[in-house]
Structures are given as structure tokens and as C-alpha cells.
Specification:
HATPase_C_sf, HisK_dim/P_dom, five-stranded antiparallel β-sheet, single chain, transmembrane helix, HisK_dim/P_sf, alpha+beta, kinase activity
């Protein structure tokens, strides 16, 4: 017995469809074979009755009234095996018959009135005396255009019905065998579907309980194979995300501990007193610097949280990209000077590059990109910022460095959240992930091209503010 579920439904549906189909085929076959046998018998007797009628018209009618021997001649000439041939008068009385037992009363079955009306009569029914199922065919015998006698053939249908019943039983047996084979096939088909599903369900339950090292094994085909591959991929991604999360927690803990250690140490030192004003100024400066660093880390985490929950607010206005990049370069100038890195801005737009967006958020994007370029560039190298127009009314900002570059292994992962190529470099691993989402909120795209040991190029493409467009959305407009 198949348990409730999709397996039982498959078997049941196959069984019902095949059963109904076989039932209809069986019914039509039985009806058709019965009609074929009955029509063959009818046509055989009808043809002989027609030949008897023609014989009567040509040879018997002149003497039929006075010489009954001609009826006997007709009976002998047109007699059929296993069939009774009778000559009836208009009242249905038997004038002559091949059966030695004469009927004791006139025959009044429906084929007799039909013959008297001038057509070929046919009757199928049971004889009152014996209860035997018979077929009777009657045809008129005419004298001078008037029906005077009737030639009537009567044959038993019991043997035919017996053969039809045997054929019916045989076809039922074949249908039952076909139905059994289809049922076995449907059970096999159901098992081929249900077993993989049960396996996938069992492994999914393990994953739901936190066992993400469980994998669906088996070479399943079609949609089941795709489902198994998807679940295995999901488990791998969860494991990877958990690893990234663990790395992030470890990294952020270190990043938060460093400024907090500096703040705590100098606050305790300054509290103890006894320092000259110069040392006090240095300590307060360190506390302020580490506090700013701490605030930056927290704000980065908060920005990422807002982006993930679609709660990031943008204050839209007109943004001049050239001016924005000049401000960005000023903000990182001191850091670049420490490594003797030259920053150069080149404008190829041959005009103003104005976009519609949130100036502070776009500045955050370019600050992160340029800061990364400085962080991973060699001393006494250069960083090139290029503004150029591209097709479809868009502008592209490229930040090109000659730093250490990124290997092909990590290139597709650098924009993933919490991912860091170099864990010793500090940071949360959220910078590029946040930048990517901010650019997409401005209907732009960010691409990274890099070669290990050669350098990296980060391209940010944004839609230009067209000339016939309203000059800027009013400052203060917020979008998500």
C-alpha cells in the first residue's frame, strides 16, 4: 500500500486515466464486434431472402396458388444451415417450413408487418416457447404487385452471443493485464520521483536544524537535479556567509578594540594628572582621533544595515562630479602625502559633468574607492582619476592605480559584504559593498578590473542630467 502523498496521487491519476480509457475502448470494441456479427448474419439471411423472392417471382407465382410443392422446392433450394426457413401467408400462418415442428399459432413478430408493408423486416428477440434468442428476417413474396406470402429466415443467436461473451472476457483480461502493467509502471515512476524528494526533504531538514555540512547526494535529473543543486549551493553559501560573518565579527572586534584601547588608556592617564599642557594636548588629540575612527566604523555598519533593509535616504540634488572629485582628493591628500602618492584628476567630458544624486553619498563612494587605492598602492606611485562621457548620456569616473592589484580568485568577491582580501589591512569589509549599493541607488553601475601586481581600475558609471531636464530635484527630496 502506497502511503499518502505525491506517490499515491501519481499512481491514482495514472490508474484512473488508463481505467477510463480502457473502459471506453472495451465498450466500443464490444459494441462494434456485436454489430459486426449481427450485421453479417442479417446481411446473409437478407441476401438469401432476396434470392428466394426473385425465384418466386420468376418460377413459382404462376402455380403457387394450386401447387404447394413449389414452396417445398423453394425451401430445399434456399435452405441455410442452422437456420429455419418459413413461408408465411398474410395472416402469419406457416404454409411451409424446414422445421418439422410447425407453429401452432400465427407468427406476429414485428418483422412480419414490416414485410407486409413491402420492406425487409428484422426482429431480434426471444421465442415464447423456448426462450431462445433469435434473429428473424422477413421479405415479401408478391403476385401482381401484391404481397401474398412472406419468406422468413430465423436463426439462433445463442452461439454467436457465446462467442461474443468469450471475446469480451478475453478483451477484459487483456485490459486488466494492461491496467496492471500501467499500475506497476506508475508505481515505479512515483518511486523514482518520491525517493529523491524524500532524500532532499531529509537533507533539507538537517540543514534547517543547522547542519549545513549535509549535502544531497545522487545524480538526479531534470527539475529534481536542479532543486538538489540549488539546495547544495544554498548550504555552501550559508557556510560561506557564516565564515564571513565570523571573520567580520573577529575583524570588527579588533577594529573597535583598537580605538577603545587608545581612548581608555589616555583617559585613565590624563585622569591621574601630573602632565604638562603639551602631553595633555597630545593625549586629547589621540582621544579625539580614535573617537572619530570609532564613529566612522559604527556609521559604516549603520549604513550597511539601512541598505540591507531598504531604509537608506537620499537627499537628491545636482552634483558636479568634477567638483566632488576635487573635494575627495583634498580629503585624502594628507594620507596620500604620507606614502608620497601623486593624485591626478583628468576631465575628458569637454563640459560640465552634472548628475542627479545625493552629493554626500556619492562623495562617500569615491572616498572609499580612492582610500582603498591609496591603501593598496606602493609608495611613490600615482593614482589617476578620469572623468569621461560614454554613450546613452552617461558619465564614467575611473580611479586607476598601480598598486598591488587583486588576484582573479578574489576579483569577483571583493564587492561581497564582509569580504577582505587582506585581513591585516583593517576595516570591516563593508566599504565596497556599501559603495556598490549606493551607486545602484543612483541608477548607476560599478565595475572593478584588476591584475595582480599591475594595478586596479574601479569604474563608476552614472546617468547624466540632460539639458532639457529640470535643473536638479529640489534639495531635501528623499528616495529609497
Amino acid at each position: 500500500m502506497i502511503k499518502k502523498g505525491i506517490g499515491r496521487q501519481i499512481v491514482l491519476h495514472y490508474f484512473i486515466v488508463v481505467f477510463v480509457t480502457l473502459f471506453m475502448v472495451e465498450f466500443i470494441f464490444t459494441l462494434a464486434i456485436r454489430m459486426y456479427y449481427y450485421d453479417t448474419i442479417y446481411n446473409h439471411m437478407s441476401n438469401h431472402s432476396m434470392w428466394a423472392s426473385d425465384y418466386f417471382q420468376k418460377f413459382v407465382r404462376l402455380n403457387a396458388e394450386g401447387d404447394p410443392d413449389y414452396f417445398t422446392e423453394m425451401l430445399r433450394t434456399f435452405e441455410l444451415d442452422n437456420t429455419e426457413l418459413m413461408i408465411l401467408d398474410r395472416s402469419g400462418e406457416v404454409k411451409a417450413s424446414t422445421n418439422a415442428f410447425q407453429a401452432d399459432k400465427a407468427i406476429q413478430t414485428s418483422d412480419v408487418p414490416q414485410a407486409l408493408a413491402g420492406s425487409v423486416g428484422k426482429w431480434i428477440g426471444r421465442q415464447t416457447a423456448t426462450g431462445e434468442l433469435v434473429m428473424a428476417v422477413s421479405r415479401p413474396l408478391q403476385i401482381q404487385g401484391q404481397t401474398q406470402y412472406i419468406v422468413r429466415y430465423v436463426t439462433s443467436m445463442e452461439s454467436v452471443n457465446s462467442k461474443l461473451l468469450n471475446l469480451t472476457f478475453m478483451s477484459i483480461a487483456v485490459s486488466a493485464a494492461v491496467l496492471a502493467l500501467v499500475t506497476l509502471f506508475s508505481i515505479g515512476l512515483a518511486n523514482s520521483i518520491v525517493r529523491p524528494i524524500n532524500n532532499i526533504r531529509a537533507v533539507s531538514a538537517q540543514m534547517a536544524r543547522g547542519k549545513f555540512d549535509a549535502r544531497i547526494k545522487g545524480n538526479y535529473r531534470y527539475e529534481l537535479g536542479e532543486l538538489a543543486s540549488t539546495l547544495n549551493y544554498m548550504a555552501e553559501e550559508i557556510v560561506r556567509s557564516n565564515q564571513i560573518k565570523d571573520d567580520f565579527i573577529s575583524s570588527i572586534s579588533h577594529e573597535l578594540r583598537t580605538p577603545l584601547t587608545g581612548i581608555k588608556g589616555w583617559s585613565e592617564t590624563l585622569t591621574s594628572g601630573g602632565f604638562d599642557p603639551e602631553e595633555t594636548k597630545i593625549g586629547m588629540g589621540i582621544i579625539a582621533k580614535e573617537t572619530d575612527r570609532l564613529i566612522g566604523l559604527v556609521e559604516e555598519i549603520l549604513d550597511f544595515s539601512k541598505l540591507q533593509s531598504n531604509e537608506m535616504k537620499l537627499v537628491i540634488g545636482e552634483v558636479n562630479l568634477k567638483e566632488l572629485l576635487q573635494e575627495t582628493m583634498l580629503n585624502v591628500w594628507a594620507k596620500a602625502e604620507q606614502k608620497q602618492i601623486q593624485l591626478k584628476l583628468e576631465d575628458k567630458t569637454e563640459g560640465s559633468a552634472i548628475v542627479s544624486g545625493d552629493g554626500n553619498r556619492l562623495k562617500q563612494v569615491f572616498l572609499n574607492v580612492v582610500d582603498n587605492a591609496i591603501k593598496f598602492s606602493h609608495e611613490q606611485s600615482w593614482i589617476h582619476l578620469v572623468i569621461s562621457r560614454v554613450e546613452n548620456e552617461r558619465v564614467r569616473v575611473e580611479v586607476i592605480d598601480t598598486g598591488i592589484g587583486i588576484s582573479e580568485e578574489y576579483l569577483n568577491k571583493v564587492k561581497d559584504r564582509f569580504f577582505q582580501v587582506n585581513h591585516q589591512g583593517g576595516g570591516t569589509g563593508l566599504g565596497l559593498a556599501i559603495s556598490q549599493q549606493l551607486v545602484e541607488l543612483h541608477h548607476g553601475a560599478m565595475e572593478i578590473h584588476s591584475e595582480l601586481g599591475v594595478g586596479t581600475t574601479v569604474s563608476v558609471t552614472l546617468p547624466l542630467l540632460s539639458d532639457n531636464q529640470t535643473k536638479g530635484t529640489p534639495v531635501g527630496t528623499q528616495t529609497q
